[in-house]
Design a protein that fits this description.
Layout lengths: L1 H12 L8 E5 L3 H12 L3 E5 L3 H10 L4 E3 L6 H8 L7 E4 L4 H10 L39
Parallel strand pairs: 1-2, 1-4, 2-3
């Protein structure tokens, strides 16, 4: 469990996650649960989205999730909006590795929440090239954030 915990800690440390904020985690496997645990330890409200009933139950019973959502039968965006009084999430993490999850997570981020991704040609720590809505895009990228 050390490697998944290291992945979770590193991922959260790359964000501006802070006490009192709301974090959404897409996926409740080992890394998703540990990301949620790290967020809870930092004082964030956690919302986990997971399609597997067994994993949703584990997220709830382990205490790492304040809210657990089944995205196949519930509207994640509506639930996040309700839980945040329409402010939406401050941070979101993809721990599922499935393309639809990324789209859902981008939809639940608040207007001023930083969102970004790295490209294979970036080296070192790199820099996400979308930090605000009006930042420029990279013509080599075909991802939704860059278009």
């Amino acid at each position: 469990m050390i490697e998944p915990l290291a992945v979770a800690l590193h991922g959260v440390k790359q964000t501006t996650a802070a006490e009192g904020q709301v974090g959404v985690v897409g996926g409740a496997g080992p890394i998703g649960l540990l990301v949620a645990a790290v967020l809870k330890a930092k004082g964030l409200k956690t919302i986990i989205s997971e399609v597997s009933q067994i994993r949703r139950e584990k997220a709830q019973s382990s205490g790492v999730a304040d809210v657990v959502v089944d995205p196949t039968s519930e509207d994640l965006k509506a639930i996040v909006s309700e839980q945040t009084s329409d402010a939406m999430a401050d941070v979101a993490f993809d721990a599922a590795g499935a393309a639809p999850v990324v789209g859902q997570l981008l939809d639940v981020l608040g207007h001023r929440s930083p969102a970004g991704h790295r490209h294979p040609w970036q080296t070192g720590r790199g820099r996400s090239h979308r930090q605000t809505d009006d930042a420029g895009s990279d013509p080599r990228c075909q991802r939704r954030l860059c278009r």
